[in-house]
Write a structure and sequence with these properties.
Ribosomal Protein S5, domain 2, elongated, Heat Shock Protein 90, 20 helices, 612 residues, alpha+beta, nine-stranded mixed beta sheet, binds magnesium ion, 22 strands, binds adenosine-5'-diphosphate
């Protein structure tokens, strides 16, 4: 081959840093390079099998194992698969850049991870392939994409550059040759290789063969019995955890392991996990379930949406006999079998959550990780909304820890008509909000909601045990039926002041009125009927500025400042400047900025100078 056909490429900047990290930070966990490369080979084989369903020309050869062949004399380790292969461009992007999360998140996690957790970090961040450079100082990948007749050779010493050149390969698939570092001898021993495969890749359903020395035959190193197909009593907790880490690309322990076999009208086996930690992309990533669908052990798809989006944090496998092996993408969309499996799987997960919710402390851990995702179901899923309501947990203005809606209703005061909540960005700040003063004075509990989704779902749920659910910032809250504490201070005659405030503030407010829900503060904002203040804030952030009417300014007629303004007005002086200050103060109490921060600053200066 002439040199002119060899393309030289630089790794993406991220890859360089990553290689450094992988090679140095994970030195003590080197053996997992084999897990990563075997997993890639198995994935590629599964993908080819799936593609072959619609393109028979791509069918796998009868024997399609992943083969690992050490050569002590040449100091190489060769891993071969019959998978889907890669084109020139796929090699360029898959082996030259970082497909998934960046090195920054990776290196940060590395710093905080326990030593024993580091191996699975590699899988989590999709840096799997680069782990080859932990043991090799020169890596060659020859690949031929199934359905094409050209092959390419990717080669690198892992130091900033790689080359791509035309190559030959008899069949479709991929061969990786690792030129081992001098201190990585152990991975040229068949026994050591087998041990590593057994430890990390036992669940891979494709045979993993290790070539023997000299004339010796290949040895099958993995069991390949799908864990989910075994009886529960035959599986240890360690095996469950290891399997979970593989399917979920995680390194924690599952919070819940649900393993069952459904029999009767529809038959399937399922092994599902609820993670013990919040994965990096559980909430912000794609809103689709990645639970894997298998048919008679064979991997079919991780895009079959076996669970609704609001249960997308659930990981695992569902394996059914009730679909044909050659199920196509279109069929996956349409088949009633899958609809029935979905329903059964969703119900089973709900049952698990209901059971586990009885242990408040344990459930709180789950809630902390995935509560905000579950709430999406209340918003969007008519079929499960009512069932989800008892699973919700809240911070509260009167109770430490998390409370349920049922507990809230139990504690409602005589005459209290609604379940009240206050939504914002942070429960800690909400608990000090002026919005709560009147509720606190009357001993009325308010739920403090701090997730984005909280601005949306209460409207959909609407009631719980027939009690309406209401935002304290929405419309005029009527506390008059509740036993009121003896409020101190005289009630000022605010009629003229209200007129003056309306004139001064103009379109900034849609109304000014007195309220009995304030104790210490002089003013507070409320929304006109319609979206509550937090909802308006979120819409505004999303660029929907004109949503919702201007707020209502509520004033506390017992407050000294209001009395002073009434007096000032009575003496014939203007209250225009004070009106704007009050309005901005009310905004700031809710964590918003003044309408015009610079102007606000000038007004405060003027007011202060008058006093000094
Ligand atoms: P991940 O497996 O998490 O996507 P890797 O770094 O392990 O990340 O691999 C990067 C990509 O390279 C894979 O997603 C796949 O597209 C491709 N790849 C790696 N090994 C193989 C292989 N043996 N056959 C085909 N494609 C492969
Ligand atoms: Mg991989």
């Amino acid at each position: 081959m002439s040199d002119s056909t060899v393309e030289k490429h630089d790794f993406g900047a991220e890859v360089g840093r990553l290689l450094d990290l992988v090679v140095h930070a994970l030195y003590s966990e080197r053996e997992i390079f084999l897990r990563e490369l075997v997993a890639n080979a198995a994935d590629a084989t599964d993908r080819r099998r799936f593609e072959a369903l619609t393109q028979p020309g791509l069918a796998l050869p009868e024997q399609a194992p992943v083969r690992i062949a050490p050569d002590k004399a040449a100091r190489t380790l060769t891993i071969t698969d019959h998978g889907i292969g890669m084109t020139h461009d796929e090699m360029l992007s898959n082996l030259g850049t970082i497909a998934r999360s960046g090195t920054k998140a990776f290196s940060e996690s590395l710093k905080s991870a326990e030593a024993g957790d580091k191996p699975s970090l590699i899988g989590q961040f999709g840096v799997g392939f680069y782990s080859a450079f932990m043991v090799a100082d020169h890596v060659e990948v020859t690949s031929r994409k199934a359905g094409t007749d050209v092959a390419w050779l990717w080669a690198s010493e892992g130091r900033g550059q790689f080359t791509l050149a035309p190559a030959t390969r008899d069949e479709a698939g991929t061969t990786i040759v690792l030129h081992m570092k001098t201190d990585a001898d152990e991975y040229l021993e068949p026994a050591r290789i087998e041990a590593v495969v057994r430890k990390w890749a036992d669940n891979i359903t494709i045979p993993v063969m290790v070539a023997g020395e000299g004339e010796e035959e290949d040895t099958k190193a993995n069991e390949g019995t799908a864990l989910w197909a075994r009886a529960k009593s035959d599986v240890t907790e360690e095996q469950y955890t290891e399997f979970y880490r593989q399917v979920a690309h995680a390194w924690d322990k599952p919070w819940a392991t649900v393993h069952w076999r459904a029999e009767g009208q529809i038959e399937f086996q399922a092994l599902l996990f609820i993670p013990g930690m919040k994965p990096f992309d559980a909430v912000e990533g794609d809103r689709v379930s990645k639970v894997r669908l298998h048919v008679r052990r064979m991997f079919i798809s991780d895009g079959a949406e076996l669970l609704p989006p609001w249960l997308r944090f659930v990981q695992g496998v569902v394996d059914t006999e009730d679909l044909p092996l050659n199920v196509s993408r279109e069929m996956l969309q349409a088949t009633p079998v899958l609809a029935r499996i979905r329903k059964a799987v969703t119900n089973r997960v709900m049952t698990e959550l209901k059971t586990r919710a009885k242990d408040a402390e344990e459930y709180a851990k789950f809630w902390d990780n995935f509560g905000s995702v579950l709430k999406e179901g209340v918003w969007e899923d008519n079929d499960h909304r009512a069932e989800l309501a008892p699973l919700l947990r809240f911070k509260s203005s009167t109770v430490v820890g998390l409370v349920t809606l049922a507990e809230y209703v139990e504690r409602m005061k005589p005459g209290q008509e609604a379940i009240y909540y206050l939504a914002g960005d942070n429960a800690e700040a909400l608990s000090k909000s002026a919005q709560l003063e009147g509720f606190r004075a009357r001993g009325v509990e308010v739920l403090l909601l701090e997730d984005q989704i909280d601005a949306f779902w209460p409207e959909r749920l609407a009631t719980f045990e027939e009690k309406p659910i209401r935002s304290v910032t929405q419309g005029a809250v009527d506390l008059s039926k509740l036993e009121a504490p003896a409020l101190e201070g005289e009630v000022a005659d605010t009629e003229a002041l209200i007129t003056a405030l309306k004139t001064a503030l103009g379109p900034l407010v849609s109304d000014v009125r007195t309220t009995d829900r304030l104790v210490e503060s002089s003013v507070v904002l409320a929304a006109q009927a319609g979206p509550d203040l937090q909802m308006q804030r979120l819409l505004k952030r999303a660029g929907r500025d004109s949503f919702g009417a201007a707020p209502v300014l509520e004033i506390n007629p017992r407050h000294g400042l209001i009395a002073a303004m009434v007096a000032r007005l009575g003496a014939g002086d203007s209250v225009e400047e004070q009106a704007h200050l009050l309005f901005d103060l009310a905004r700031m109490q809710d964590g918003d900025l003044p309408k015009d921060p610079a102007l606000f600053a000038r007004r405060v200066e003027t007011a202060l100078m008058a006093r000094i």
